[in-house]
Amino acid sequence: MIVAHLSDLHLGHRTFDRAERGQNLRERDLAVAFQRAVGSIVEARPDLVVIAGDVFDRSNPPPGALVALARGLDELRGSLPDSRVLMVAGARDTPRRTEDAGALAALDTFPNVDAAAGRARAVVLPSHRAHVILLPYRSAITRPLPAPEPDPRQRWNIVVGYGRATEVEATREVTLRAGGGGDRTTDGIPIEWKRWDYVALGGQHTYRRVADRVVYSGAVERVGVSPWDEAAEEKGYVLADLEAGDVTFVPVPGRPVVALAPTHVPIGDPDGLQARLEEVVREVPGGIEDKIVRIRLQGTRPADLRGLDPAFLASLVDRALHFSIELTGTSVPEMDRTPLIDRVVASLDAPDDRVVSLLRRVVGSGVGGTA
Hints:
By secondary structure, the chain is α/β, with parallel strands linked by helices. It has helices at residues 25-44, 63-79, 270-282, 310-319, 340-346, 353-362; strands at residues 2-6, 19-20, 23-24, 48-52, 84-88, 113-116, 121-125, 130-135, 156-162, 164-168, 173-177, 189-191, 198-202, 208-211, 214-216, 236-241, 246-251, 257-259, 263-264, 292-298, 322-328. The protein folds into two domains: 2-251, Purple Acid Phosphatase, chain A, domain 2; 257-362, no CATH class. The longest helix has 20 residues, at 25-44.
């Protein structure tokens, strides 16, 4: 039994306000990453494909996200007619109103697809001698909580769940909670993982093995407001060979993300700042074209940014998908909660609309000394 395990697709995710032909470029990036994962899975020819939550970035996804998922499911069905796709809804997929099943529930009508959006569900696959328990996000916050049990009549017993898993060493048990925060006192769904052949989890963007057969596949692309935090991490999906007991992470290429090392520039030297920025940009391997780039300047004051050449700023905006300048180590009064970009604009003697627009595109919007 080979299981392909994905999660956290976040289809429909939009950020950075860059679009082509009416579509946000980051939204397109995530759709492309999913299609690449599907193509790789088709080559691997697994018996089962599971998607463990946050399939969409929100419970009412845009049409493009629905189309991207439908295309992927159609390719899997056409190329792997004997494989089944099992999905659970994550926190992002789940509407606040309990009477609203959300968009993911509509996918339950697709051939060879089972999509659980509300309560836990058991799926038996006689052709594979497999029994699968689906634990969507809502199942972990709705009483009574499910108590998953393997089916001894089946050869393979699998859990697909979304949430925050913590292992209890004494009982060799994993508790799946709704996720978010660090509260470990709330109830959760107990999973005695030694009794299961594989536990496929979603809700974390980084590949991680909680226990021997308890795995987070991670996201297939870098999502979130700060993709630079994951710049060094590979994204992809997992192939689990249950017979051999092997778990293999399969990378999926995505949009290049560059987090440049912090750069020190002397205070009160706008010309030196410009020259140093130009130097750092030239040193990026392969250039900054179409990449998501961040540079942190140490010791630079917001006012120093006003000396940057508008033509240089425009080149950063045009060449990179997104270029972010952040300041760190800058002394700021404790009570000053003014966004960094607003402090930069306020320092301009005679604000020019074009310069202000360019600065707003590249200067981080955080408060305090670090954006």
